[in-house]
């Protein structure tokens, strides 16, 4: 088994929204646990605090940042070469811990649970230090109440992280 720490930045946005958006910068950080089947194949579970959302650029919602914070748990199948390069993919569940819509933090417009798929590539050095890049694709709409006007928008995020494995 391998245990580790990870932290990095991301750019998240909504897809399938009926209003204009730009990516919202954020971060993710947390703990990792990998169960090795062989020297090259493993399953890695992570426990992350991750920020997602979007910058809304006008339209029906006005201009504001929608910031959604999650306790995210990706479970990734990982193949790592002997040189340290790896690919990873798997499902992710995110449990909403905070919602901030233009400074209003007591709103309840977004679902408590978000599901997605993760795919990524990276490199782990022989001393345990590494980098990775990922794309998180949201599988379900994140707003609590369906809206024809707003669309059935989903979270999506591009992430870059550094990590250390003990």
Please give a structural write-up.
- The N and C termini lie close together (10 Å).
- The protein has one domain (2-165): Beta Barrel (Porin), CATH 2.40.160.20.
- It is an all-beta fold and 166 residues long.
- It has strands spanning 2-15, 21-22, 24-36, 41-57, 63-80, 85-101, 113-124, 129-138, 154-165.
- The chain contains no helices and nine strands.
- The model has no long low-confidence stretch (mean pLDDT 94).
- It has an eight-stranded antiparallel β-barrel with strand order 1-3-4-5-6-7-8-9.
- Helix content is 0%, strand content 69%.
Ordered list of secondary-structure elements with their pairings:
Layout: E1 2-15, E2 21-22, E3 24-36, E4 41-57, E5 63-80, E6 85-101, E7 113-124, E8 129-138, E9 154-165
Antiparallel strand pairs: 1-3, 1-9, 2-4, 3-4, 4-5, 5-6, 6-7, 7-8, 8-9
Domain Outer membrane protein beta-barrel: 2-142
Protein name: Outer membrane protein beta-barrel domain-containing protein
Organism: Mucilaginibacter polytrichastri
| Class by alpha and beta content | mainly beta
CATH level 1 name = Mainly Beta
Strand order of the largest sheet: 1-3-4-5-6-7-8-9
Q: What distance separates the N and C termini?
A: 10 Å
Mean pLDDT: 94
How many helices does DSSP assign? 0
Over the alpha carbons, how many angstroms does the gyration radius reach? 17 Å
Number of domains: 1
Largest sheet: 8 strands, antiparallel, barrel
Shape, principal axes of CA atoms: elongated
Helix content estimate: under 10%
Order of helices and strands: EEEEEEEEE
- What share of the residues does DSSP label as strand, in percent? over 45%
Q: Give the name of the CATH architecture.
A: Beta Barrel
Pfam families: OMP_b-brl_2
Protein name: Outer membrane protein beta-barrel domain-containing protein
InterPro entries: Beta-barrel_OMP_2, OMP/PagP_B-barrel
Organism: Mucilaginibacter polytrichastri
